[in-house]
Each structure stands twice: as structure tokens, then as C-alpha cells.
Specification:
Helix content is 85%, strand content 0%. It is an all-alpha fold. The chain has one domain (3-451). Helix 3 (50-86) runs parallel beside helix 7, helix 5 crosses helix 6 (130-145) and helix 7 packs antiparallel against helix 8. The protein is globular.
Length: 452
Amino acid sequence: MSENNTKGVSILNGDPKKAILKLSVPMIFAMFVNSLYALVDGIWVGGLGDTSLAAIGFVNPLYLIVIGFSNGLGVGATSIISRYIGQHDKKQVDNAGIHVLILIAILSILFTSILVLFLPEILRVLGVDNRLMDICLSYGYILFLGSIFIVFTSAGYGILRAEGNVTKATYGILLGAIINMILDPIFIYPMGMGVFGAGLASILSLAFVSLLLTYWFKNGTYVDFSLKNFNFKLDLIKKILHVGVPAGIEMLIVAFLNLFVNSILLMVSDIQGVAVYNAGWRVVTTAIVIPMAIGVSTVAVAGANYGAGKFENLKIIQNYTIKFGLLITILMATFIFIFAPQISYLFAYMPELSSIQGSMTEFLRIICLFYFALPFGISSSSIFQGVGKGFSSLLIIIVRLLVLEAILAYVLAIIFGFGQYGVYYGLILGCWIGSIFGYFYSKLFINELNKK
């Protein structure tokens, strides 16, 4: 066990504010660069026309499901391992790590078999017509054949975060993003692969990171994956899934909301409206990665403090996470608002897409109001995940996305007739109300926990 690995554990068990700061800053940088890959990917695909952008918009929700349950498994790994670290139970730490690997194998087989075998049927159910079907299949098949790499990297990062080993997690995320951004334009244009090339670049970069993670797991992490430490426990599987499944369902809800919004936009706008939303949402994803990065670090810190019985620190963690998230989010939103025309031009540099630049600039400026609510909701969900209350975290997401954002977007766009602007303001209003609900719900839980 190296000094760096024991240092990460010491950070988790130390001052919660310092722990959040030390774990979050490198994760913000790494996840921001990783999100830039999605942004750059959209820019390169944008050169193929709005049909390709719209096709990827229909495949992305399925990809989000794979990513979501993979990240969910990673969150489950972070939660259970960090709690055992807080309890100073090294034997259970190692055993939990091996159980995570078992779940990685099971989840990979499920995703690959279902999404590859039934992709055309699934896309038809989602409303994909003949204009988009071939492009969707070209992009989707290569992505879902590489499901093993998506699941393994996401869960692997969760294990590293659990032991406070953000240095390795950061290196892995950065390397994957850089490789992807290099391969993307080469595969799409000089090699003439189109959207298939974009998918292939994504999978090859994840395959490289998977090899790197495998090397690290064999050569010095705090979690020891030796089979001598393995003792199969169904209860341990249940504990991981108790957090991981709700976290995965959260992304399933996000995917459903994206599909729902696409459908509304097709009714009130046209295929160009879908292209504007999907291109603009890539920018939104880049911005919200900041509170999300703080959130994934919060899971580990909250889990370690909960495992150690330091319940009073959960209130400190919640308040500090929100303040930290708001500070950086405000800076990011200000930047996007000012440079929205320039950002939009990156997606509309081809003559056939020039008509979407004005609409996208408008979208990027309106949606800035969305960002400021996120630190309240994400910090609350992360604390629930850290202490093993995965379904409480899921409740916050259901209220925010399904009960509020989806309904308000429909009501404002269709019933009140505000069109695509109704969609935008419905998402913003729903996010604010849902995030405030999550904040007070988690605050009540922390207060009750400290009373007991």
C-alpha cells in the first residue's frame, strides 16, 4: 500500500471542509475537461448537419441509461467502501471492492445483450423515423458494443473516489477525454466514418482507460482485490445496489426527460428545434459538471463521516458544498452568458447550420438561470447517497425532474402556448422548486439524525 493511498484515507477521515476541497478541485478539473469532450464531439458532429445532431439526440438517452447505471454502481461503490473506511474495517473494504467487480461483469453483459440485439426496435418505440434510423444505428451499435468499458471505467472511478484517491481518478478521466478529442475529428472527417467514427472514438478512449485502471488495481490501491480477501455476501451486494440502483434510475429519469423534451419540441417547433436543444444541452452539461463534481466528492466525505459516527459533520458538509458550488457555478454561468454567441457559432460554423446560431444563443442565455439551483439539489442527493439512503436521493430527483420539470415544461409549452420558450422556462422553474425541496428534505434528515 503506497503513501498516496493512505493519504487519501487520511483526507476522508480529517476535516470535512478540507476533504471536500481537496477531493473536489481535481475532480472539477477532470470532469470539466471530460465534459468538454462531449461539447467538442457535438461541434464535430454538427459539421455533418442537423440530421446527424438530431439522430445523436435520440441515441443519447439510451447512452445516458448505460452511463447512469454505470455511474450508479460507482456511487454505490463509493458509498459502501467509504463507510467501511470510516469504520476502519479494512477487511470489509477489500471484500466490497471485489463485489463491485462482480456487479460490473453482470451489468456489462446485460447492457450489451439488450441494447445491441434490440436497438432498432427500441429506437422505433422512441419515435425514430426512417430519415434518422440508419444514422442512429451506426452511432448506437458501436457505443453499446463497448458497454463493458463504459461500466468498468465509471465503477472504477467510484472505487478510487471511495478511498480518497482522486489523483488516479483525475488522470484517468483526463487521459480518456484527451484521447477522445484527438480521435474524434480524425475518424469523423479524414477517415470518413461520420457518426460511427464519433462513437468509435468514445469507445477506444474508454478501452484505454480501462487498461489503465486494471493496472492500478493490480499495482497499489488502498482497496486490495486479491481473492484471498473475498467472502461472497449477498447482503453486501444488496448494500451496494441499495445506493447504486436508485442512482442509476436517476439517470434513467434524466434520459426520459430528454426524450420527453425532444417530443415536445417536435410538436411546438421542428427538427431544427431539437437540434438547438441537443446542441445547447451539451453546453449545459459542461456547466453543471461543476456542482456534479463537488457532489461525487461529497458522497465519499459524507460516507466516511457517517461510518465514523460523526453525524454533526453532515451539516457542515451540506453548507460548505452548497457555498462552494454556488461560487464556481456563478462564475461559469457568467462566462456562458457573455460568450453565448461565440459558443453558438462553434456549433453553427457550417452554412447549413447557420440558421440555428441565433436560437442557440438565446437558449444558452435563458438557461443560465437553471444553473444556480443545482448546488442545493445535488448536495442534498449526494449526502443521502453517502449515508446509504439511495432511495431518498431518488425521491429528490423524481420530484424535481418528473413531477416539476417535465410537467411545467409541457404546461408552459403546450397548454399556455409559449412554445420552445415554455420548455426552457419550465425546466428552470422546476429545477428551482425541486432543488429547494431537496435541500429542506436533507436538512430535516440531518437534524433528526443528530437528535437521535
